[in-house]
Amino acid sequence: MPLSSSSKPPFADLPPAPKAAIKPFSDTRHGVTRTDDYAWLRADNWQQMFKDTSILDPEIRAHLEAENAYMDAAMADTAALQKQLFAEMKGRIKEDDSSVPMKDGPFAYGSAFVTGGEQPRYFRILRDGDPKDESLRVVLLDGDKEAADKDYFRLAGLDHSNDHKLGLWGYDDKGSEYYTLRIRDLESGQDLADVLDNTAGGGVWAPDGKSFFYTLQDENHRPSKVFHHILGTPQAQDRLVYEEQDPGFFMGVGGSLLDDFIYIDIHDHETSEYRLLSTRDLTAEPVLVAEREEGIEYSMTEGGDVFFILTNADDAKDFKIVEAPVTAPGREHWKDVVPHTPGRLILSHMAYARHLVWLERREGLPVIMIRDRVSGEEHAIDFAEEAYSLGLQGAAEYDTDTIRFSYSSMTTPSQLYDYNMATRERVLLKTQEVPSGHNAQDYITRRVFARSHDGVEVPVTLLYGKDTVLDGSAPCLLYGYGAYGVTIPAGFNTSCLSLVDRGFVYAIAHIRGGKDKGFSWYEDGKMEKKVNTFKDFIAAADHLVAEGFTAYDKIIAEGGSAGGMLMGAVANMAPEKFAGVIAAVPFVDVLNTMLDDTLPLTPPEWPEWGNPIESEEEYRWIAAYSPYDNVGKKRYPPILALSGLTDPRVTYWEPTKWIAKLREKAPDAGPYLLKTNMAAGHGGKSGRFQRLEEVAFEYAFAVKMAGKM
């Protein structure tokens, strides 16, 4: 365990840690009986509690508050450091920052923050107005005003109607991700009487601006129904357009740029299905495009008289783009447009009047591709750095040659460009400002490769100061996620500079379970191969030590959500290789959660982790690595776990039970700290600076463990 500069152990003189009551609960599945001593921490009324936290069982509340008090005591000596870190991070953010408005019809729409503000303001200007002239902006929705006097407030955006008269906006004021929808008159700034509760947030306007479509969350927090709401009518009278009967599927509703269709997107993590509703008849039943088939995914965008469809059908593991007539979009009419090329993973696509655009990944790096729809000529937008991140925003209009994208790297602040697909001219619209100053030449970014247990080369992106001595003496924050095919971008991160400026090496391990090296990279880190994710992360730590970037007693591991499961697993597998572990909203009680089909995400998650209810084999896969089930008498490093009381994705009781069991099974190691945000959910605090306070807290733990206070 690393020592602070005073050589005093970083967690000396702690008060006694809270001890959760042991109340054994036994469960037998597939002939295996497990006893869970802390199952009682799961509130039986969790569905209602997410909407009203005052009904939480007093015994559970008392335990969470005791954990928070213990955490406060353990981290008390970092109070000044947290303030310093927060001030540094805030100093790198332009307080009165503004987006570059996106043109749509007679206006251009954007968002901005005011100095000291936590929430965005949505505004518009005339289409050709000067976006830098703030006097031309008309504020449509002031997030700070709406959030006043609320402990938690998260906006779901503002979507204007086609005639630009009304705006549909949503908010969650509990952190439970039950959104309320309102309709704003964009001329007067007043909201209509319509109030829609328990939605998934957002919706899609009908072309006439008199109604919209939205998804409703059911009692188990799943978006299972699509409704059509006509302005001025009660929510109870909304027409049910489609109901998904399978609890294993997510559902969303969207629209086409040409406003010809409403898309109902039904999917889990490996199978998808679309239903289309023509806006020419809003009372019609949605039409099935291609019936769901296990393992086949597809997504759609309209291109005039054809649909362009991104799919992995016909063994196109890394995906291809096909087209089909708008009048006959079924799979039997699909014709290859961008064929499948192994190793070239197509991530997303967009269609415009004269061009087809897609974002692909080659050798771990993103590439934007453009095809002229008439000539068929293709070209890529080129970039020079060794590791970088791209964001493809596209355009709000169909008949355009100009799209928008963003570019950044670990050393290069974000740059926003407009790109003319016909002339290939790119125009720099904005460069991210760092008010406190940033010199890219002071930092070095690299991509190295760690050899995993089976010989696979795992990419690791590094950022460190140019003067950092690489002799094993530098502390390292090693970040990982590795699930759902999510790729962690090598983009600019102002917060991590506070660690790098203190001599840290900041590292991102691009482990299996993401899609960093193609779809097979994802497949090799899920279901029965999930252990590869954990072994890849440990291999990254081993490589960084072997190459002199750091040492085992200086590595602080960090991950959140599914990445928090990663943290729990590597702590069980190789506790001696980490000086500390930060697990944010960690998915650590995997087996119990996958056995509980009443939880919001459990049925849709079975294709990712396995279904231990139906399959003994899959039960045993999960049981073999589930962090909570594999806690043992080991020399664990100090662990900081963070959770949100109203989190519907990783429920508060998962990290709470985990910490309790760590204390029981390995009382002489740790310590184990739990911070539960009693007024937030999965994403933590909702304000932009409030979120920085949480990052500062996490980084203070890392600095403390690295002996850099």
Automatic annotation (TrEMBL):
Keywords: Hydrolase, Protease, Serine protease. Residues 496-707 form the Peptidase S9 prolyl oligopeptidase catalytic domain. Pfam families: Peptidase_S9 (PF00326), Peptidase_S9_N (PF02897). Gene3D superfamilies: alpha/beta hydrolase, Prolyl oligopeptidase, N-terminal domain. GO terms for biological process: proteolysis. Residues 25-431 form the Peptidase S9A N-terminal domain. Residues 1-28 are annotated as: Disordered. It comes from the Bacteria. One of its GO terms (molecular function) is serine-type endopeptidase activity. Belongs to the peptidase S9A family. This is Peptidase S9. The lineage of its organism: Bacteria, Pseudomonadati, Pseudomonadota, Alphaproteobacteria, Hyphomicrobiales.
